[in-house]
Amino acid sequence: MTDISPESTPGGPGDERAPDDISSLFADPDRQDLLEKMARLQVHGTRAGMADATTGSEHEIAVPAPPVETVVGGLVFEDDNEDQEHDGAAPVPAPRPPSDGWSWQDAFPAGTFDSAVWAHRKKVFLHSLARHAGHTHVYAWRLSKLSGLGVMAGTRDSWHYYTAQEYADMVDTARRKNLNPDIIAALREERNETARTRRREPLLVGASTAVLTVIAAAVAVADVYGLLAASPAAVLMLGILSTLGLREHKRRNPDEELSQVFALPFGTGPDVPLTDSLLNKVLRTAKVLKEGQQITLTEPIRPAEIKGVEAKFKLPEEVTFSQLMAKREQIAAALDVEVHWLDIQQDGSPSRVSFWYCTSDPFGEARTSPLVDTPEQTDVWKRGILIGFNRRGMPIYLKLRHVMALLGGMSRTGKGMLLRNLICGLGLDPRVNLRLVAGAKPGEHRGYAPICSTFFGRRPERLIALLDALLREAYRREDYLEEQGRAKLGEKDLDRFPLEILIIDEYKQYASSSVRIPDWSDPKGERTIKAADRIAEQLEELGAFAAALNITVLVSTQDPDANTIPRGYKSNSGARVATRTGGSVQTNAILKDGATGAGLRAHDIPESLKGGAIVDIDGAPGEIIRGFFIEDEEYDGAADIIAAGRELRESLGRAPGQFADEVEEFLIAVTGESSLAGGPTGSGRPGHKDSEADEPEEVTVLTLMLDAFAKAGDVDRLRTADLLPLLADLAPETFSYEALGVDEEADGAKATYNRQGGKKIAEEIAKALDGTDRELTTSEWTVAPRGRGYLLADVRAAAGIAPE
User: Fold this and answer.
1) In terms of pTM, does the model score above 0.70?
2) Residues 6+ apart with CB under 8 A from 319
3) CA-based R_g, the chain, Å
4) What b-and-e string marks burial along 44-62, b requiring 16 or more CB atoms within 10 Å of the CB?
5) What single DSSP character describes residue 485?
6) Of the candidates 407, 404, 383, the residue with the CA atom closest to the CA atom of residue 395
7) 77-86, 627-636, 644-653: range with lowest mean pLDDT
8) How far apart are CA 784 and CA 292, in angstroms?
9) What burial class does residue 225 get, using C-beta atoms within 10 Å of its C-beta: 0-12 exposed, 13-18 middle, 19+ buried?
10) Which of 65, 122, 430, 648 has its CA 20 to 30 A from that of 33?
């Protein structure tokens, strides 16, 4: 590790600061830029050229005091200096400043002493050798053709020389011009004399004798000893004849380069090592480069992460980076790889490019989250939450600070697994107050309850109260900033104002809810409005200003459309993640308007890419990733992570219930029930704060019906047609149109839904009352509004509740 002594600090030997206080190194922007460049140069010198997401940052080269390891219930974390990041990796030593003098290595070309470069060159050589060896039959056929051409050309040229054919051409010319016959006769005589003279030339006699002798000897040896013994002479003759044929071929095709005679077909594929010539051919095939244009390598080609290879080059002046990016699909086709195997990035200037592609599917294998084996304390503020990896194998972190977030996609596309990674990461940072609201199936989130300051299932009215509480907290924090004369809260304020993160899962269930609430703007309290409209208003209000106050809202939704996400909230969402969607409309609804045209095509993510997503966040704009895997079917793979997060929070007095929580206290004051850590049962059902429940409360259709009566207001009866929508809000997995197999858009859907729903209610009631002597049936009444349904008194009696 680089030795940073007191003498090396700006204060010199007399500096009163601690030797390990290097904050002054970053005070000068020029000094910081120099250190950043030095860090990146050091990374490029490694075998694989790998760089972390924070390469070149101040955290990478900071040299902290020796950490003190603490183990709490299987959770490993370090008590470092406040500037050190908990990234789960060994700290990178600070690079030594480069020497101002000349080094003997500067006399050699770049990459001469780089083992990774030589490893790639070796791969290119071996592949070239194997490729040429594998095309021996092609070369043999071409040599045979050239030899045949050489035989014909040699025979023709020998005969012409032997018979003085040039005089015959002159005789023909004289005849066509009707010259004097004496001239023609003289030419013929001169031809005969020249031919006789040539036939007696020693060189011609010797060459003819040598050729005939070699042929005769080769035939004789082959006849006596076999073809193998005659092969040297045959190879010699083949070489001579091929040379003659090559000369004749060049005479016939003067514009063709000699290298093209033996050139192999343009070979591509994941096993072909990348070279500058191959890259130029690929770009010409993709119509990026024209004939005569070529790229120039700025660094030697080297291996990269996950069986990848990276080339850095400079484009010709006539070609722009945007033109290159527009041809990504054509480039992938020329390389014979999938588009998501390819990664093209700008490298410092519009004309410089970092070109990376993988020789196999970079997302072909699922990767388990590192937190499963080592649930270390995370730093949500500086590094973010680890959610997955990109095509280069680099980890992707989602920073939920000073930002609103949006996560969406079709069902069964990995959205839930990304959310699982987020919640587990948030649980390992005690500076976060996590509030989880489930729009559907709260049971699948029950395991997260121990680390949640607030957790409840689908209850639109309670979500409205929670958003009101967050708005009150936001205004309180805004008043504090006004007193301090500051624009936003920072990391140093987390002790007083922890990071409030609200996750609303399956938001579409709230956006389509039919529950109505009193209109808060009506002083008489006579009007009602949709709870969905009020929730949308609150989200837009929070999105407009709360991000700078250490308050973040993450909305997760399934199958969104243009109207699902409140426009004001979406426009203020700086972090967006889209798993595979059903079309361009859904893609644009999650990411941003025009995302499809910009190449962010989440609907084109292959179905085979489980957990694939396009992220548009700080540090990974428009990048395709795959989420880490945390087991959720065979067993609860997050249980140890949540337990470690709970113990960490308890050790610091930051577990739910150990600190003053004004948001949850507001909920208790408004609703009379607590949802701290999932409520008394931990199941996401709010209850009285002091109630005890050793056994989880069983949710039956009777409890749902009682909740439905409570939502309906002051009524003593509900028609089945009015009860079903309320039950669908509470338990969409059982009573929604989709759960009952009814197409909501079909003709007569409402009547079919009421009929199927009535049967389902009766079935669930029979299951709930099985083994008891109680019963519950529908009743019919004639007073307005007329209908058939259930009486509140009958439901209470069936549930075993004594009459009031």
Assistant:
1) no
2) 288, 289, 293
3) 40
4) beeebbebbbbbbbbbbbb
5) T
6) 383
7) 77-86
8) 87
9) exposed
10) 65
Instruction: Retrieve residue 224's tokens.
Output: 């006596």
Query: 122 is written with which tokens?
Result: 């070796």
3-state secondary structure string across 435-482: EEEECCCHHHHHHHHHHEEEEECCCHHHHHHHHHHHHHHHHHHHHHHH
Q: How far is CA 714 from CA 434, 461, 523, 710, in A?
A: 34, 16, 20, 8
pLDDT at 306 over 60: yes
CA angle 438, 514, 735 (to 5 degrees): 65
Amino acid identity of residue 316, one-letter, is: P
Question: In this structure, which amino acid lies at residue 154?
Answer: G
3-state secondary structure of 40: helix
DSSP 517-566: EE-TT-TT---EEEHHHHHHHHHHHHHHHGGGGTEEEEEEEES--TTTS-
3-state helix, strand, coil in the chain (%, to 5): 45, 15, 40
Q: Return d(Cα 308, Cα 361) in angstroms, integer.
A: 10
> pLDDT tens digits for 702-746?
888 888 888 787 788 888 999 999 898 888 888 988 888 888 888
Helices (H), 163-259: 165-176, 181-199, 202-225, 231-252
659 in Cβ contact with 497 (< 8 Å): no
Using N-to-C axis directions, what is the helix angle for 136-162 and 181-199, rounded to 10°? 120
Q: Is 385 helix (H, G, I), strand (E, B) or coil?
A: strand
Q: If residue 278 lies in a helix (H) or strand (E), which one and from where to where?
A: helix 276-285
Cα dihedral sign for 38, 40, 41, 42?
A: positive
Measured in whole angstroms, the distance separating CA 88 from the mean position of its chain's CA atoms is: 21
Distance between CA 26 and CA 12 in Å, rounded? 16
Beta bridge partners of 503: 436, 554
Please report, to the nearest 10 degrees, the dihedral formed by the alpha carbons of residues 175, 181, 185, 188 taken in order.
0
Task: Find the angle CA(477)-CA(481)-CA(486) to the nearest 5 degrees.
Answer: 145
Asked if 682 and 749 count as a contact pair (C-beta separation under 8 A), the reply is no
**Three-state DSSP state, 780:** strand
Contact indicator for 324, 345 with CB cutoff of 8 Å = no
Give the residue from 576, 560, 589, 557 showing the smallest Cα distance to 615.
576
Element (H or E) spanning 136, and its range? Answer: helix 136-162
Half-sphere exposure of 721 (CA within 13 A, CB side): 9
Would you state the pLDDT for residue 264?
Answer: 60
* Amino acid in position 729: D
Q: Is 95 helix (H, G, I), strand (E, B) or coil?
A: coil
- How would you classify the pairing of strands 432-438 and 499-505? parallel
Cβ neighbours of residue 551 closer than 8 Å, sequence gap 6 or more: 470, 473, 474, 477, 499, 500, 502, 542
Q: Could you tell me whether strands 551-558 and 573-579 are parallel, antiparallel, or unpaired per DSSP bridges?
A: unpaired
Of 297, 290, 366, 301, nearest to 323 by C-alpha is: 290
Q: Judging by beta carbons within 10 Å of its beta carbon (0-12, 13-18, 19+), is residue 478 exposed, middle or buried?
A: middle
Percent of the chain with pLDDT over 90: 28
